[in-house]
Fold:
Amino acid sequence: MSQDLNSKLLLLKHWLKMAPSWVRHGSPLKMDEELIFFPTSATQQEDGSWIIPVHAWFFELDKNSIMRLLSVKAVSELLEFMDVTEEQARLPIFQERIKWFLVDNESNKRIHIKLDGELHRSPRSKLSGHLQFDIPYQGKPEEAWLKLPVDMPEQDTREFFAETQLIPRQGLSVISDIDDTLKPSNVLDKKLLIQSVFLKEYHAVEGMPAFFQWLSNQGAYFHYLSSSPWQMYPLLKPLLDQYYPRGPVHLRNFNPSNRSFIKFFMSSEVYKTTKAMNIIHRYPEHQFILIGDSGEKDPEVYARIYREFPHNIKQILIRAVDGSNLHQKRFAEVFAEVPKDKWKVFAEPSHSLLDM
Structure:
């Protein structure tokens, strides 16, 4: 080790010793700060124990969102791209949705999760305000979902819970896209897509809630996968809760301070492929139904996944979206290495699409 590097390390150690405790060990949640937990899924080990992932987001809601609109690069670009007027920017629906992109993310936060009488200390939250860590669990719960409370200071009466679904080693799972699969989003037209995100009421694609409920009745577990940013979770949650079976949600990291909204929404293929493969890796003894739409690259993503995991894929279902490339040539080329009985393009969802 060079003398210069050694000197820098000694200086760093000295600084850490002199730094306040909250810098060295992380600080607790303050009264004016908020915490959101994202639903996760636990994996069962060979000995019957579980690994429970915890994913949290720490932030403080900005009380002057209107004043910050034009100061955030991505939001300024967004308003120009959408042709949003000042009147529209003051609409309650726009204010409610844009506020999640204008929060102050809180780094260096720590919490303690209570499970079976023990406290599990989290790592410190990152600059994004997010933290993720795993908790081992030896219990044998009777319910499919486990709620893990946060140990809060006495003066803070708020309650926060992490939630995880205990998915057994073997079973049937659904990996589903969200945009234009579960809710109309106009993904093919980026301007309409972003307008639908911030200015339109959300609703479910006709027939999909009943189809997903039927799949749930067959014992399926659900993983909801979208290239949307995590800031969208509070907006998507009411729709998913009302219309679809419970399941973990997988979204993307996005920093509106230094990244383009437009480019972000146009770069999803690699993310969705990687995330879906990670899910299959975590549940290697499951059979998977992959559900998406023809709007962008879901067929290409799912065909690649089939090539990697041919024995895990029970069925690929692609919802036909008006205005997208529905030519038979496209699907013949994309699914050239996928058996014909393993994929279907559908206009209306029905349990007849599957041989259960």
Summary: The chain has two domains: 31-60+105-167, 170-353. The first strand starts at residue 34 and ends at 37. The longest helix spans residues 3-18.
